[in-house]
């Protein structure tokens, strides 16, 4: 059985400095994202601690490989999150080569790793009135390979 530790999602492991811009008011986003293996490498624990403008936001997320059929060669991950606003939810992540996409019914992320997997640049979108609106422009830079 493949674990997340042996999947393409291992690119995420480490400590990342996160910077970005929250739209439409162009508020600064800055913080730290950490990704570490837990429970014998079967899961990744993602912790985000960021400031968006004057507001601090923290999120915990568990990432696990989703069940995929043998015909499906794209690896998917289930991403279950909880945040300081008391919200929780589930998303699906796709990481093929250097392209990283995350989807839910109301949010999506589209990003790309550099060839060394030390930078991730992307955008978060929110769904409003059946249209995807750019919400956050992000850049993550890896500071340390593991937690």
Task: Explain what you see.
The protein has 147 residues and is mostly beta strands. The protein has a single domain (4-141), classed as Lipocalin (Beta Barrel). It is 0% helix and 65% strand. It is built from no helices and ten strands. The protein has strands spanning 14-22, 27-38, 43-52, 55-65, 76-83, 88-96, 99-103, 107-113, 119-128, 131-144. Strands 1-2-3-4-5-6-7-8-9-10 form a ten-stranded antiparallel barrel. A hairpin with a 4-residue loop joins strand 2 and strand 3. Mean pLDDT is 91; it is low at 69-73. This is DUF1579 domain-containing protein. It comes from Flavobacterium aquidurense.
Condensed summary:
The protein is built from no helices and ten strands. It has a single domain (4-141), classed as Lipocalin (Beta Barrel), CATH 2.40.128.20.
Query: What is the CATH fold-level name?
Result: Lipocalin
What is the molecular shape?
Answer: globular
Instruction: Please identify which CATH superfamily we are dealing with.
Output: Calycin beta-barrel core domain
Number of helices: 0
How many domains make up the 3D coordinates?
1
CATH class: Mainly Beta
Number of β-strand runs: 10
Protein name: DUF1579 domain-containing protein
Organism: Flavobacterium aquidurense
């Amino acid at each position: 059985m493949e674990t997340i530790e042996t999947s393409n999602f291992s690119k995420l492991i480490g400590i990342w400095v996160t910077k970005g811009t929250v739209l439409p008011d162009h508020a600064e986003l800055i913080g730290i994202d950490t990704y570490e293996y837990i429970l014998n490498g079967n899961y990744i624990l993602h912790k985000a601690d960021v400031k968006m403008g004057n507001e601090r936001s923290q999120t915990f997320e568990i990432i696990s490989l989703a069940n995929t059929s043998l015909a499906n060669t794209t690896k998917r991950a289930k991403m279950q999150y909880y945040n300081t606003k008391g919200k929780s939810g589930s998303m699906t992540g796709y990481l093929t080569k250097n392209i990283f996409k995350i989807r839910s019914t109301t949010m999506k992320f589209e990003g790309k790793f550099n060839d060394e997997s030390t930078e991730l640049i992307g955008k978060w979108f929110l769904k409003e009135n059946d249209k995807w609106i750019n919400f956050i422009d992000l850049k993550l830079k890896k500071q340390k390979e593991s937690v």
